[in-house]
Amino acid sequence: MxxxxxxxxxxxxxxxxxxxxxxxxxxxxxxxxxxxxxxxTVMGRFELLSVVMILFFRRTRxxxxxxxxxxxxxxxxxxxxxxxxxxxxxxxxxxxxxRMKKLAGMFYGRLESYATAMDGxxxxxxxxxxxxxxxxxADERAPSMVTLADWMMQAEAHLAAxxxxxxxxxxxxxxxxAGRGQEQ
Length: 184
Hints:
Shape: globular
Distance between the termini: 50 Å
Largest sheet: none
Number of helices: 8
Strand content: under 5%
Radius of gyration: 17 Å
Order of helices and strands: HHHHHHHH
Number of strands: 0
């Protein structure tokens, strides 16, 4: 009995790793940093990874229990990855938990604000929330983030068509973002 639990966990770990790699690969698309006005900085990458994780999390909220469990494991992997990255940047062990708590609060705050805008199908509110989070100290010259908001709406529609089997095998992919001058 107990060995079955470990076997399932190992099987889930393979799926979690596969799905997490697909999601992080989507967030690493250079076009986000060249054409979508996301700054190619540590925080810019955190913001885009958060966007991708939020989109995946939103898709799995209507899944069976196994899909929701997978989503939680992927979010856990996301925070483990952030923890590792913070330590790699040379942040001292004593301050990592405080930073992790702050980043977790930021993530869940973004989840709430993006979900509110997306649930209302309000692209402008989503763009405003993205702009506020990606450019927190910016003035009126900051990019509008409408292009990223449009992609998020498109990605959510794309993920809605992802089957439960694709989720269960860690095979859900996000649409590739179009570059300037290309159709989305």
